[in-house]
Amino acid sequence: MNLKKTLLAAATIFALGATTANAMPVGDMSPQIMYPHDPCVAGGPTAADNAAAARLNNVLTGKLKNAMTGYRVSCARIVLDTVRDNGLGQRAEVIAITTTIVESLLENINEELDHDSLGLFQQRAHYGTRAQRLNPVWSTNAFLDEMQRVHPDDSWRTKPIGEVCQDTQRSAHPDRYQHEVADAQRIVAELTSAPIPKTVSIYGTLADGRMTYSTINSANGNRTKTLVSTDKLGFTPKAMATLNFNTVLVTSTSGVLHRVDIVTNNNSLHFNPPVVINGGWTHDMLTYDGYGHLYGIAGSTLMSYVVSRPKPSSVHIGQRAVIDSGFTMRTLTATGDDWLLGVSTTGVLRSYRINANNTWTGATLGEKWAGIDQIVSPGGGLYYGQTREGGMYWYLDQNPYDLNGSDLVGHSSDPVDPGGWTQTMLSAQPFSTAT
User: Which of 308, 343, 307, 310 is nearest to 327 (CA)?
Assistant: First the structure.
């Protein structure tokens, strides 16, 4: 490190209240300051990166609020490409971006401003050589390897994202990560280039206890299949949540939670006799976010649970937490990892972010949704609304995590179906559990 850069780094740290003997982590410094850094991609940021940065500056609320640049977007882009190459899914993408926001403010920092840490993930010298830690692909892979090493049971898939980041990084500031998760989700949504899965799967119940299974083409909103079972549940259903392609949770009006195991939904719909899990489930609605989190509303109280198995028994659904009261909703669905969407009893479309400490942030996306009786979402910003007349309409939210309805596009002139959806309950399979 040359003397001029050393003095510059020391002056920056001193001005922000830290000493060079106990360096302040880069993530605690001002995002308006660009620290000495290497490029993240060959050729530097593109025009598309600059445009994405401008859009993100309208929606970010954390440390990078009004501070996204084309350079930072280019760094996020290479991190996301590397995670996708590992096939670990969107949750790993959000974990990685959350970590880089906190550790480096999404900069590939090439000076040791915090002890001997370098790069996007501020990895210490024991991780690898200087060149390796400043290589975004190598450093991202090293982070993912460590994340999986410290979570050998794959618990990173369901634990709060902030905890996963802390477990992996072992930071002296463990509380910083969770505050940036929502912005990481917004960045991932903005930069997601992977196509939305083509098939949307929706389970339903009929008034006589039979179940239905429908598929919809996500690209054009056309229904491609509907199957009706001859099997019956054997009880009057009250709430349901789809866990995966062959597992559905259904409660009865007497408050008993059942697991319904689907045998086939290919050319016919058949399921085994429902398995009783336990009683006391008086919820009016249930929804599953695809990342181990089951949400339910009883009266107007929102609660959450952790589901730890694809086909859970009573011991695999627990850690009940009360989020808050006042959720007077007509319908509720999950749109992503700890994100909910619902229509209130007054016909208002609301989006909610549930935080790891069981607090929440919400916003109104639209006011004129009184005609929608049920709304479901598989993720990916796709919403499907059933009207009381039996129509099914589809919508695309360009960024489902921005708490803003201005980018929500409906297809009122081209519905999935203008009628025929007579199910008493509907529940979409989360894309994150698709096989």
Answer: 343
Residue type, 193: S
Euclidean distance between CA atoms 52 and 193, whole angstroms: 13
pLDDT at 356: 85
Distances (CA, A) of 420 to 139, 286, 292, 391, 417: 52, 23, 32, 6, 7
Helix (H) or strand (E) holding 250: strand 247-252
* SS3 (DSSP) at 375: strand
Contact (Cβ atoms closer than 8 angstroms) between residue 313 and residue 350: no
Instruction: State the DSSP code for 22.
Output: B
**Residue ranges in 157-231 assigned as alpha helix (H):** 161-169, 181-191
Three-state DSSP class for residue 15: helix
pLDDT exceeds cutoff 70 at 12: no
Q: How many CB atoms lie within 10 A of CB 3?
A: 7
The answer to whether the CB of 378 falls within 8 A of the CB of 430 is yes
The Cα 231–Cα 211 span in angstroms is: 8
pLDDT band at 132 (very low <50, low <70, confident <90, very high): very high
* Count of beta carbons in the 10 Å neighbourhood of residue 103: 26
CA distance from start to end of the chain: 50
Q: Is 260 helix (H, G, I), strand (E, B) or coil?
A: strand
